[in-house]
Every structure is written in structure tokens, then in C-alpha cells.
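To whoever picks this up:

The nightly regression suite flagged asparaginase as changed. Nothing in the input moved, so I suspect the structure step. Input below, exactly as stored in the fixture:
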Amino acid sequence: MKKILLIATGGTIASIEDGNGLVPALGGEELAKYVPEIEGLCDFDVVQPMNIDSTNMRPADWMRIRDEIVRAYDAYDGFVVLHGTDTMAYTAAALSYLVQGSPKPIVLTGSQQPMASPFTDAKLNLYQSLLFACDDRSCDVSVVFGGSVIAGTRARKQRTLSANAFVSVNFPEIALIRGERIVRVGKPVTCTGVAGRPRVYDRMNERVFVLKLTPEMNPSIFGLLKRDYDAVILETFGIGGIPDYGDYQRAIFDWVDSGRTLVVTTQVPEEGCDLGVYEVGRAYAAHGGILLGGDMTTEALVAKTMWALGQTSEAGEIAGLFERVVNWDRAVEG
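Regenerated output under the current build:
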């Protein structure tokens, strides 16, 4: 029987109503008792590094989850992280970069309704997450939610209320789970790591800002961001449109030429960004030091940029790390 480490961090799945709104209160051991069926599925232990609303989840907390996984890696066959839904996509992406190519599965799940609710989706999500974590073909970081298995770098919360809250963006789902049956429908996933182990990292630079273009936004904002941020992820219009009014080009080139990082993506949810299509984007495609987000999600871009800047401050090395395909995070040519 597989041995799984259950890492409880809070979120809706652990919440109760205290008169002021839902607040995480149940511990991991209590959550497991609500799903007695898991006793026959696997052996498991529980750790509780935090018990917070995922709105408060930040890079230091990603590191705490990462530390629990790395510390216990040799003792377990897989890991299931119970997490709030609001920032789960960020954490799944961050763990994909911090623990790369894990031969053992690292699964994130949560719920739209608290575990104690009579209409909860938490019981099935927890059970199916453990089911997937116990499967011999499972590896790397994924999100299991609402019967879908999504690569950790491709998940996005699409719905605020429905049980099928998460979608896989620009990439097929890894699998569907129907009852106790795992139906693998996407690309075959193999994870060998390095000599059978993941490649692990312990540094991130959280000085990363997401800037969404809006009509008539003043490009002087780039100058205002210099004090507090080392990188900007710029969500452009459409497939990669940047206005040619207001001296955007000067502001953006100045940002990059000052040694800071700029990642260009799109605010359109699907099909990605290409600066070479329109004149309003082509000038930026030819300027050195600007990184292209392609078809990656913004959540993955945030985590990957923080990870890359955590390893080096040299522009060429940052670009090299950024171009590395990790856990299916960007389209692979050919």
C-alpha cells in the first residue's frame, strides 16, 4: 500500500463559519476523518505547516510547503497538499519550479464548499487526489479538482462557485477521474528527475509585479515601479499589442536597459501572445532583454519569473532559465 504525506494548509476545505465569514479552523487530521474511505486506499500521515485562507498565501509559504516535501521526500510515495482555491494555481506553479521533474506525485486540491457543508465537494476531491497520488503513472506537480487532473503550471481558477472551478489553459488535461477510474487523456507524462530524484531549488525573488494594460494608462508607471520591483509581467492587449501613444516604447526600453526584467504576455485567457504579428508589438520583439510569455498562464509566469530571478541576476542566465520547459508550462516546438 502506498504511503502518502497529506500537507494541510487551510483554505475553504478547512473552514467553518464563525459569524464573521468562513475562516480556516479544521486541521488535516480532522479533514481526513470526514473521508473514512481513504483508510483503505493508502497509508498516510498529516502535517500542518499553516492553517490560512489562501488569500494570505505568499512565496514564504510556498517555501514552507516545499520544505515539507523535500524533508519527507524519501519516506513517502507521494504528496497531497490541501489548499485554498483562490491562489492554488500560483502555489501549484511555484512548486513546479521549486521541485522540478518529481518522479513522485505532488497533488494540490481543495474545495468550493467547506468539508463540513452538507453540499461539499471536498470529500470527493480529497479522495480522488489521494487516488491519483497512489497511481504508479502519476508524477510531478498537478491539481486534482472536480474530476480533472491539470498540470501544475497550466491550472487556473475559472469559476468562483461551481465545483468544476479549475480549467487547464492552452494544454490538455492530464487525466479525468470518474469515480475510482483514472482516464489518462492528455500527453503521456514521464518524470525521471535527476538520478530518480527531483531537481530542487530554495530561492525565489518575490519582487515581481503584474501590470495589465488599460486604455490611456500612463507609461510613467514603469518609473514608479523601479523602487520596489525587479521584474514586470506586462499583460498586453490581444495577441501582443502595446500602444504607440504616450511614449510606451521609451518607458519599456528604459526598464529593460536598466537591468530589470520584462515579461510580455496577453490578458486574453487562451492561445497566447506573439509580438511579431502587429506593428504595435513588433518593435518590442526585436529588443534584447524582453522575455516572451508565449501561451503560459499569468500564474505560471509569476512563479517562473520569481524562480528565475531567485537563481541569478544576470540577464542572459535569466532568459535561459525562463526558456526551459518545466512541467509542460509552455508550448514545445515540433
